[in-house]
Amino acid sequence: MTTLWPTSYYTDEDHLSLEQERIFERSWICAARSSDIAAPGAFVRVNVGRESVLLVRKKDGDIRALINLCRHRGAQLCLEEEGTFKNSIRCPYHGWTFNFDGHLVGAPFLHELPPETKQRHLFTAQVDEWLGYIWVNLDPTAPPLMEQVGPLLRGRFGDEDVPGNYECEKLRVAKEVTYEVAANWKILYENFCECYHCPTMHPEICQILPSWRTGYGTVSGPEGPKQEGSPLADDATGFSLSGKAAAQKLPKVPEKHARTFHGILLWPNVHLMFIPDHVMCMRFEPVSPGRTRVVVQWLFHPDAMDDAEFSPDDAAALVEVTAMEDFEACERVQAAANSAYFEEFHTPHESLILEFREWVHQLLHPESVRHLKEAV
Ligand code: FES
Ligand SMILES: [Fe+2]
């Protein structure tokens, strides 16, 4: 199937602004690991869409997502990426001070200011925790996180709670790598939507997951998603460059999945891999039309990590090698995306790309979706 697509789709600043406004600033975005802010007062500063957001752990254990912008004259409250606030958040400019709920609790000469000044609370975003990650939604009217990810989970795994088997919230980050790739975030995401490139480009992963040599991975198959996952090669004990498991099977992974790889894309910004002994989470953040930050984390059971012999490196190396192959290909597409000749052809292996694009299109142009519904 040939698709003509405007070249602006991958290259245009205005198009990315629209995506930021209608996708990243209205969807649930996986923003940080819950353990990043374990102690009361701990915070991380993250980007959600075009906004800077402070994720703060309150004394009662809850998390607040506060827009990093002072309600006096708009200065950014915090420039550090992470740290710990003592009891409050104080703007360095004129000293307005907010508690962790975002309420104004102090300001120079506050008693001389009109009483309504005290109502100038920080703006907040919706926040939730799932899989041991902190998810943020800037849209106060957005439905709960599960309404966004539930249909994707059911479409991929059916009725089985596959992520639940891995108890991600109990796992620890054994390794983290951040990449900056010279490609539009959708080019990266679309790459992970298909395995048509696997037999050509990924000899290492096809050695461990031989079924990928068919050009169908786990996120798509001849009849749609392959809910049963991909089996490890007969001579492999784990998903790693050497083919050896890095740790014991996670406790709640059922025997039927003891030699199975599962993967899922939770758009817009998450790619998860579930392997018997660990979980990999890849998050995408658009930096500019032609650049994307990718944060990869490998999560293992704390008991496995306490073993003196433990190393995540062999497992991580398989994803690292594969990711470098993917990123290079994505950069080739980006380099061509401004050409007047740019167009695409999609094989049946790549059908998930079209589903993803439909989702993007519906968020970018809700009016056209309404129109389509009326016409039916
Ligand atoms: S801008 Fe923050 S106190 Fe003035
Ligand atoms: Fe790939």
Automatic annotation (TrEMBL):
Pfam family, one: Ring_hydroxyl_A
Signal peptide residues on this chain, from the entry's feature table: none
Keyword Oxidoreductase: yes
Boundaries of every Rieske domain copy: 28-136
Matching CDD domains: Rieske_RO_Alpha_N
Example GO molecular function: dioxygenase activity
Record bears the keyword Phosphoprotein: no
UniProt keywords, alphabetically: 2Fe-2S, Dioxygenase, Iron, Iron-sulfur, Metal-binding, Oxidoreductase
The protein, known as: Aromatic ring-hydroxylating dioxygenase subunit alpha
UniProt organism field: Streptomyces spirodelae
